[in-house]
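cron nightly-structures :: item 1 of 1
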Amino acid sequence: MSLQKGGRGYLAEINVTPFVDVMLVLLIIFMVTAPMMTQGVDVDLPKTRSVRTLPAGSDHLVLTVKKDGGLYLDEYNVPFEDLAQHLQNLVVNQKKQLFLRADQEVPYGVVVKVMGEIKSVGIEKLGIVAESSEQNAAAQAKKPNQP
């Protein structure tokens, strides 16, 4: 409130600046906390009809799950108990991208367990390696029929 010109009385006007300040702070808080409210493992799955090749260079690592349950980070064998530490040192700290490749005969539960470990380390983006249907058909044609 302020005095009008001429000193005849008070002028009643609302100062909206504090209101706008509070609303901007609330908006920023919402924008920061909204991504943390998502649950589950977010994975961008590639389509099998149009599979892109892995990027060249050393800016990524491939975690392979073999059908016997063995884990390999690139070509090095990693026990499941040490997986979190290796991922923290090699992927998170060095800001590399991680790709997951699993044999088609690996049980779904094992893949989910590995993905849960990846998520617990703090890796938010995970690429899934797949084979295109044309490559798969060509590989099957080259294999001799087994009895």
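cron nightly-structures :: done
The two ends are 94 Å apart (CA to CA).
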